[in-house]
Amino acid sequence: MNKPTAPTATVQQIIQQYQHTHSNSHVQHVMTQLAACRTAKLGYHTYQCSDDECAQIKYQYHSCRNRHCPQCGAFQKQQWIEDRKRELLPIAYYHVVFTLPHELNSIILGNRKQLFALLFEASAKTIQCFAKDKKYLNAQPGFLSVLHTWGQQLSFHPHVHCIVSGGGINSQQGKLSWKNGTRLKGDFLFPVKAMSTVYRGKFLQALSQLIKDKKVQLPIDCNQKELFNTLYKKDWIVYAKKPFGGPEQVIDYLGRYTHKVAITNHRIKNIDYQKHIVTFNYKDYADGGKQKQMSMEVSEFIRRFEQHILPKGLTKIRSYGYLANQGRTKRLLSITNLLKLQPHPAKVHTPWQVRLLERYGIQYDQCPGCKQNTLVLKQLMHKIPDDG
After folding, report:
1. Which among 32, 212, 282, 312 could disulfide-bond with 152, CB atoms 3.0 to 4.6 Å apart, if both were Cys?
2. Domain limits at 99?
């Protein structure tokens, strides 16, 4: 088992070292949590070796568990992936990405919750529109959509990654049946250019209504008519990759993309505290995906990082079609029966102690002194209350 290597520099070190105050209380709260993660501020467990000759004490500091934290969420992610793995079928799966033109960035930044929800809605309705067409699938597929808001350079680039099943369920005269999709030229399930046009129409039509209903506010200097004329003339980018090679590739994708944060600690190469410069790695997709380095002032790094803190309560992973949450288990059982497959195994919750051993090779009760499994919990210290 290969243990994860420790990063040379971290997002937390940057936040701890440099003062930052954001006008949005939720963003400020998230940054405060990230700074306090695995420090005494969030509380800790005190363990002591039960061997009187050793009696060594160990402090286990609490994690912030915030979804934006680069050092949290590994166990929850693994549990989620295993749950999704149990739902996979022996069929083709496709990867489709829906992006938004940069002309919308200023509007999205001022109306995040509404327009992130619209991005999910417009992309999902586009997939469903083509899926029900008799020329393509003529069935209801199952798919997951994952929101990302960043580019490799921490720029603001909202888009959703979708995993779409290459088959779906069809109900005629009360009888349920399964239908496999026919792969188009280029190995895609639906025509990408046509999807782009439909997606653009659905998004802009819904956005116009939101503006009319005063649920979305435009910047003061924005001319709605000119903006919409520009957006309708522009080709919106929807791209589809070749289908996954099999269920294992789907799982690999889920592991890399679903619970991703704006930047991982391992991408940060250096923090120059004298010049206040952060250097990090990025992939330059305009140059064949080459690995490059970028340096910027700490204040700009923090500004870019904060752009990707999602609104409170926003769900960043959503499921649709036969994978929609309501009635999901019953539908999946019907599908396995149709395909003459064994029912999916029941979900199994893996204890954190087992995760810790599997991922890091650490036994939670092993004494750091005598190396025996003799640690006993002596005290639980809760989070230190905020001032005021």
Report:
1. 282
2. 87-262+308-338
